[in-house]
Amino acid sequence: MGIFFSKKKPPSRVTEHDKAVLQLKQQRDKLRQYQKRIELSLGKDKDIAKKLLNNGQRDRAKLLLKKKRYQEQLLSKLDVQLDNLDKMASDIEFAQLETQVVSGLKAGNEALKQINDSLKIEDIERILDETREGIDKQNEINELLSGQLTDEDEAAVEEELAGMIEQEMPSVPSEEPKVEVNEEESEDEEEVADKEKPKQKEKRKEERVAVMA
């Protein structure tokens, strides 16, 4: 024999208010259907009454008109009942919304209360004091760093600046550099010049002969 495990059904999300609204709307729909049938019947009864009157059946026509009159009064009552049903359904739905709003406010108040309970006045005052101390200390440091220099500090800065300028500037020589001349190179240049002189004289002589010719 097998063992059967029955699963538990999840809880229904439909509340009693939802069921009440659904029943009201169903009743309203039924009344509207009945209202449409009466309206159709009124049109037919009027046509039949005209035919009976034309056929000389006055009593039957009058009886049919009485029925028509009764149904018209019934339609008026149905309109009132339909309005009441619509109003009641709307009131229930609005009450549900109000309940949800109240539940939300309640949850919000509980959360806010827990937050306020976690924040103690002593802790807040301590944090504010520490913050003020930190700001005051930072202000003191800023004042020290941004304060004016004394005369000694100014003199030390000028001296350091002058030393840096002196290091950066190139040194200027006091005398012009002497150019050393190699004696052997000088003698070679003189020999070349002596050899070139006869050649230049011979060239000039040839130029004069050519001009005379």
Automatic annotation (TrEMBL):
Keyword Transport assigned: yes
Gene3D superfamilies: 6.10.140.1230
Subcellular location: Endosome membrane
Coiled-coil regions listed in the entry: 17-73
Principal location: membrane
Protein's name in the database: Charged multivesicular body protein 6-A
Biased composition (Basic and acidic residues): 194-213
Taxonomic source organism: Diabrotica virgifera virgifera
GO BP, sorted A to Z: late endosome to vacuole transport via multivesicular body sorting pathway; protein transport; vesicle budding from membrane
Alphabetic keyword roster: Coiled coil, Endosome, Membrane, Protein transport, Transport
Regions of compositional bias (Acidic residues) in chain numbering: 182-193
UniProt record similarity statement: Belongs to the SNF7 family.
Region: Disordered, residue numbers: 165-213
Gene Ontology CC entries for this record: ESCRT III complex; multivesicular body
Domain of life from the UniProt record: Eukaryota
Tagged with keyword Membrane: yes
